[in-house]
Amino acid sequence: MAEEDTFNVAVIGAGFLGARIITEMLLLGNKVAVFDQNIAKQRDPQTALNEVIGGLLMECDRQGLLGLAEMVPPKGGKWTPFSSEPPRQAKACSSVAEASRNAHIILEAVPDKLEIKTKVFSEAVSTARPGAILATNTLSIPLKNIQQAVASEIAGGSPLPAALRPRVMGLRFLSPVVFIPFVEVTLSAEQEKGVDKEDLTSMLRKWGKACFICDIQGAVDNADQDKIDFIRVARERLRLDTSTAQRRQVAEAKLRAAIRMGPEVVRTASADLFTETKCCICLDAKPTVPSMLCGHVALCEDCAGVVESGTKQCPMCRERFVRRM
């Protein structure tokens, strides 16, 4: 991966979800720093973290995914997936502030409690890059509640100017996370219209992630309706069944290998990899909308609109999505 396509990523929490996010960030070639309370208490936190992530990478290898992606399996310690590139290792840190130092994005995978997420993000912004993205995976807390709590904590209860407000956005990785090319995004109505959306989707495009906006909060003035809409969307969130997830992982691993060999290989390989009978996003409707540049027909009408408002990439091959009329 080119240097300009890598990011400093802080992951807070290395439990079931967090460990998989860390692994996926390493697979994508990012510089990853981690804080997890339990790991930080170990006699040798770095070795403890390496064992967790190494175990997940070996699981990928047993499933054949590393081989399909033409990546070398780990042998302990730092991981060198390609002989032509430097080794990769998630850095074990002793605090949220240390993990977040100079980070472009902070990904939290902590318990779904407002006070915990507020504390994490408030500490993270003290050392992260100015304007860093604070990404929450919450399933139950309205986004604007987290935004307001973090802003209040940072400002000591005083109002913050719009330019200084922390950039809290919803970002949910679909299980099993590794080699899954889709993510869900939740934004406020203000973020949907501004630079926050473009900055996040630009980062996701460089990761090869197709995103869909699963909720825009604050689009109406009625607070009760916002809460009702949030609960509805949470219940309808996309979940991949085991067979679909495994099929997508295999195709994604092959695609990542093709991407390293260049656009022509991607176009040839992706035609054989993806034969969708259902829309690849909603997994329900029949795909009917063709992409003009790559020719894939993998999206239904509604989800094509979602892609056009999100990363604007074909979810199958990463080519720019242009609807063929």
From TrEMBL:
It comes from the Eukaryota. Keywords: Metal-binding, Zinc, Zinc-finger. GO terms for molecular function: NAD+ binding; oxidoreductase activity; zinc ion binding. InterPro entries: 3-OHacyl-CoA_DH_NAD-bd, NAD(P)-bd_dom_sf, Znf_RING, Znf_RING/FYVE/PHD. One of its GO terms (biological process) is fatty acid metabolic process. Residues 279-318 form the RING-type domain. SMART domains: RING. It holds the Pfam family zf-C3HC4_3. This is RING-type domain-containing protein.
